[in-house]
Amino acid sequence: MYALIGGHPYLTRKALYLVASSTPSSTVDDLFAHAIDDTGPFGDHLRYYLLRLQRKPELIAMLRQTIEQRGGGDELLVHRLQAAGLVRREGGKVVPRCDLYARYFSERLRDSS
Predict the structure, then answer these.
(1) Full-prediction pTM beyond 0.85?
(2) What is the mean pLDDT of residues 10-17?
(3) CB atoms < 10 A from the CB of 5, how many?
C-alpha cells in the first residue's frame, strides 16, 4: 500500500478504512485493481485534482514532464504542483508524490495540452 500511495495521510486513512470495513467490494486486491478508476476507491480525490488542472495547461505540461521523468522546467510551476501536493522533491529531482498520482495522471493527461 505504501508503494501505491506513498504514505499520503488522507489516502492511507481512506484505504485502511475501506479494507477494514470488510465489505466484499473493499478487499485489498480490489483496492489495488481499481485504484486509478474514476469510480474506484480514490476516484473522488483524483478527479478533484484533475478538475483543478483542466484550465491550467502549463501545470498539465509540467506534471506530464515530471511523470515522464524529463528534467528541467519552470521552478514556479514545480512549486505550484508541490504546493498542491502532486509532486515532491527527491534528491535533486522532482517526482510525482506517489505512484497512484503518476499512474492516474499519466493516463488522464496523455492527450491534454
Answers:
(1) yes
(2) 92
(3) 21
